[in-house]
């Protein structure tokens, strides 16, 4: 009988276990302790690159789209005419929270020569799947143009760079790219699209480990409990779930110079409102073009610190930036072009949250350009105070050349779909005069997302009612058995 009681007490502890773990895991071990310092460093690098560009144009009396664009990432490596002989120089060019992502730096080059993906358990040497599961650092390049249709998720191991420069590389199919429990990955110059849910199968994740995967969600890139990730110059569209999702305590991420199009829920940052470790999530979103056919989530944030800087938002149908659970959103030097719909002019949306709660959230706008009636609703003392901050050497001065900064967003040399883009011209800038507007209620349902783990399938969210019912059941059973034991002892 005593053993039965012990088992029941253990079950009771398990009931509380998720809440206990969350309550003691409020921060992540790899998050930056001073995120505003990272923001200021990004601003400094942008301003330095702009100054060099202005000097270049003055002395050379010409504007080049290949070098000295004012974009600090591109100027870092594209000014070297022999960059292809020193590809790993790219690893020194990241900015923001993902700047420590070294990928396969100092590792061997691996040339993908086979575009097939026939076996997820025993990948064929020469394929991309074979390369990304290896343990050692690898700088992965491609022998030529490739169309890679994945059989299932592509599970990437730590310290890998997928470098598509010099080739037209398309990744599509089932599952697409998954980064789970790993670190230091760079994905550069890749087309990723038409990603579909798949799974319930065995997939090799390292040379020595094969795991059973549940059903994936169909993300373009799924980042799960991972850190030091840099996604640069990619083109993403038409996926089943998110184009890029980062959840479950992922941090140290930069998403830059990419082109997003033709998708509903573009980018999710944060697993669940109640998952407190995501408070340590830190993400830089810089120099991207949010283009044709987008609806919402550019990004949609839960907790964390999100720096959105020098992006061009040319289309949304519901909202551009949304959030819940008190994320910090620092928007600087972006251009927001509102749609024609008079009910969708607001850039921001606080998801399923009353104004009495979100009014204290730190959402800032500084130097943003608002076009066609777009408006950003700031909040919190810092968010409101930043509208009236005095100019300084680290404030964004780059909104005026947003076209130049995002000129090459996406895969180099690839055409953008501009069939329904609209140019309104003009605009207003947030800063000294600020911006205003009514409460952020938005429209439509912004449903939750649940990540997939190794195992039989996706974890299910337990409602508070169900949770307390289970807990009460355990307590009743414990009481009955304890009472019975007491009678026996008497």
Automatic annotation (TrEMBL):
<dbReference type="GO" id="GO:0009664">
    <property type="term" value="P:plant-type cell wall organization"/>
</dbReference>
<dbReference type="InterPro" id="IPR002022">
    <property type="entry name" value="Pec_lyase"/>
</dbReference>
<dbReference type="GO" id="GO:0030570">
    <property type="term" value="F:pectate lyase activity"/>
</dbReference>
<keyword id="KW-0472">Membrane</keyword>
<keyword id="KW-0106">Calcium</keyword>
<dbReference type="InterPro" id="IPR012334">
    <property type="entry name" value="Pectin_lyas_fold"/>
</dbReference>
<feature type="signal peptide">
    <location>
        <begin position="1"/>
        <end position="23"/>
    </location>
</feature>
<dbReference type="GO" id="GO:0046872">
    <property type="term" value="F:metal ion binding"/>
</dbReference>
<keyword id="KW-0812">Transmembrane</keyword>
<comment type="similarity">
    <text>Belongs to the polysaccharide lyase 1 family.</text>
</comment>
<protein>
    <recommendedName>
        <fullName>Pectate lyase</fullName>
        <ecNumber>4.2.2.2</ecNumber>
    </recommendedName>
</protein>
<dbReference type="Pfam" id="PF00544">
    <property type="entry name" value="Pectate_lyase_4"/>
</dbReference>
<keyword id="KW-0479">Metal-binding</keyword>
<dbReference type="InterPro" id="IPR045032">
    <property type="entry name" value="PEL"/>
</dbReference>
<feature type="transmembrane region" description="Helical">
    <location>
        <begin position="467"/>
        <end position="489"/>
    </location>
</feature>
<keyword id="KW-0732">Signal</keyword>
<keyword id="KW-1133">Transmembrane helix</keyword>
<dbReference type="InterPro" id="IPR018082">
    <property type="entry name" value="AmbAllergen"/>
</dbReference>
<feature type="domain" description="Pectate lyase">
    <location>
        <begin position="145"/>
        <end position="342"/>
    </location>
</feature>
<dbReference type="GO" id="GO:0045490">
    <property type="term" value="P:pectin catabolic process"/>
</dbReference>
<comment type="pathway">
    <text>Glycan metabolism; pectin degradation; 2-dehydro-3-deoxy-D-gluconate from pectin: step 2/5.</text>
</comment>
<dbReference type="InterPro" id="IPR011050">
    <property type="entry name" value="Pectin_lyase_fold/virulence"/>
</dbReference>
<keyword id="KW-0456">Lyase</keyword>
């Amino acid at each position: 009988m005593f053993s039965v009681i012990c088992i029941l007490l253990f079950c009771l502890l398990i009931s509380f276990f998720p809440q206990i773990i969350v309550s003691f895991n409020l921060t992540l071990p790899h998050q930056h302790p001073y995120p505003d310092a990272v923001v200021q460093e990004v601003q400094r690098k942008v301003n330095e690159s702009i100054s060099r560009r202005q000097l270049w144009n003055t002395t050379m009396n010409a504007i080049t789209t290949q070098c000295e664009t004012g974009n600090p990432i591109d100027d870092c490596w594209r000014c070297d005419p022999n960059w292809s002989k020193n590809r790993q120089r790219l690893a020194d060019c990241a900015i923001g929270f993902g700047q420590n992502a070294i990928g396969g730096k100092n590792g061997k080059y691996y040339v993908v020569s086979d575009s097939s993906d026939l076996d997820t358990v025993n990948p064929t040497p020469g394929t991309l799947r074979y390369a990304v599961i290896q343990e050692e650092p690898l700088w992965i390049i491609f022998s030529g143009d490739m169309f890679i249709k994945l059989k299932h998720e592509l599970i990437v191991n730590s310290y890998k760079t997928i470098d598509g420069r010099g080739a037209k590389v398309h990744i599509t199919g089932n599952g697409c790219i998954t980064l789970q429990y790993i670190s230091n990955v760079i994905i550069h110059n890749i087309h990723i699209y038409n990603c579909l849910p798949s799974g319930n199968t065995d997939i090799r994740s390292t040379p020595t480990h094969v795991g059973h995967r549940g059903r994936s969600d169909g993300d373009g890139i799924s980042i799960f409990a991972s850190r030091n990730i840099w996604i640069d110059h990619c083109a993403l569209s038409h996926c089943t779930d998110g184009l890029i999702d980062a959840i479950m305590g992922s941090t140290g991420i930069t998403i830059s110079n990419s082109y997003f199009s033709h998708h509903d829920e573009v980018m999710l940052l944060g697993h669940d409102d109640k998952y407190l470790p995501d408070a340590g999530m830190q993400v830089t979103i810089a120099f991207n073009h949010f283009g044709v056919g987008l609806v919402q989530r550019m990004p949609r944030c839960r907790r964390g610190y999100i720096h959105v800087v020098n992006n061009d938002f040319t289309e949304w149908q519901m909202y551009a930036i949304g959030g819940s659970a008190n994320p910090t959103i620092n928007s600087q030097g972006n251009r927001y072009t509102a749609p024609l719909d008079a009910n969708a002019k607001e850039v921001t949306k606080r998801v399923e949250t009353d104004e009495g709660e979100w009014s204290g959230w730190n959402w800032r706008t500084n130097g943003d350009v608002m076009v066609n009636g777009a408006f950003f609703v700031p909040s919190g003392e810092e968010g409101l105070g930043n509208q009236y901050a005095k100019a300084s050497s680290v404030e964004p001065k780059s909104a005026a050349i947003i076209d130049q900064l995002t000129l090459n967003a996406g895969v180099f040399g690839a055409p953008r779909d501009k069939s329904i883009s609209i140019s309104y011209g003009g605009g207003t800038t947030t800063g000294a005069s600020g911006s205003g507007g009514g409460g952020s209620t938005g429209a439509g349902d912004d449903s939750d997302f649940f990540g997939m783990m190794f195992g039989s399938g996706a974890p299910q969210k337990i409602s508070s009612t169900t949770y307390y019912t289970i807990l009460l059941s355990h307590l009743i059973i414990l009481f009955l058995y304890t009472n019975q034991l007491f009678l026996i002892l008497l």
